[in-house]
From TrEMBL:
This is Glutamine amidotransferase domain-containing protein. The lineage of its organism: Eukaryota, Fungi, Dikarya, Ascomycota, Pezizomycotina. Pfam families: GATase. Residues 70-214 form the Glutamine amidotransferase domain. It comes from the Eukaryota. Gene3D superfamilies: 3.40.50.880. GO terms for cellular component: cytosol; nucleus.
């Protein structure tokens, strides 16, 4: 993607944050802007976000017309979501269709996060569905392939998780970047096309604590799952390093 100025990144918001997160930070475009700002601040030497990206947000769940023209963006980022990537709701089918259109441009690059990773895989013809091994929550370790170690610049990935849905197998054109015992398809990319992770580099201790608490309160999470997640929620994670890999992917 030869481009001298800031890249135009459209965040496709497939959900809204929990109430306290929304009050403190804003929508998921704000959450991802915070992630990329941290990635730039922690670069060596530090970078200026506004020289790297111009970020626009698009709430796609309730408005089928919220999508930007693919002519007006250089990349799209599909956010996580509490919804099922394998459902056939009109907005989900529209998102799959739009993702396929982005791929077909051979110019617009795609970043997939959790639900977005699954939607991208579905757009590429892969099966997505429930994980028989159950939930994966809070900071977990992801083993990286040799290519994954090069792409992310680390020996293993520590990343926040919040999912019980998975991609069954890597897409045919994907380079596998990582996996673990709970979910074998944790990270993948196709150079010049897309990069995706099953986890949430944008999540923080505060964001995940709120999700764990709220889902435990309404009975979605058992005591055991809640306590397990809370035991790891404050662990160090590699969100900024992963975001730096995203920025490099967009430029390469």
């Amino acid at each position: 993607m030869p481009h001298s100025g800031p890249l135009r990144l459209a965040v496709l918001e497939a959900d809204t944050p929990q109430p306290q997160t929304r009050e403190r930070i804003g929508n998921y475009t704000s959450v991802f802007t915070q992630l990329f700002q941290g990635a730039c601040d922690n670069s060596t030497p530090p970078k200026k976000l506004d020289e790297e990206l111009t970020i626009s947000g698009h709430g796609i769940v309730d408005d089928l017309n919220a999508y930007p023209s693919l002519d007006d963006v250089d990349a799209i980022l599909i956010s996580g979501s509490r919804h099922n990537s394998f459902d056939s709701d009109p907005w989900i089918l529209k998102l799959v269709e739009y993702t396929q259109a982005a791929l077909a441009t051979k110019r617009v690059r795609i970043i997939g996060i959790c639900f977005g990773h699954q939607i991208l895989s579905r757009a590429l013809g892969c099966k997505v569905g429930r994980n028989a091994k159950g939930w994966e929550v809070a900071v977990t370790d992801v083993g990286l392939t040799p290519e994954g170690k090069k792409v992310f610049g680390m020996e293993k990935m520590r990343i926040h998780q919040m999912h019980t849905d998975i991609v069954a197998d890597f897409p045919p054109d994907a380079v596998p970047l990582g996996g673990n015992d709970i979910c074998s398809v944790q990270a993948m990319y196709a150079p010049g096309k897309y990069i995706a992770v099953q986890g949430h580099p944008e999540f923080t201790q505060d964001i995940v604590t709120e999700i764990l608490f709220n889902r435990h309160t309404v009975g979605v999470f058992t005591d055991e799952l809640y306590n397990d997640g809370m035991a790891r929620v404050a662990n160090e994670h590699d969100g900024f390093a992963i975001a730096r890999a995203f920025l490099k992917f967009l430029r390469d």
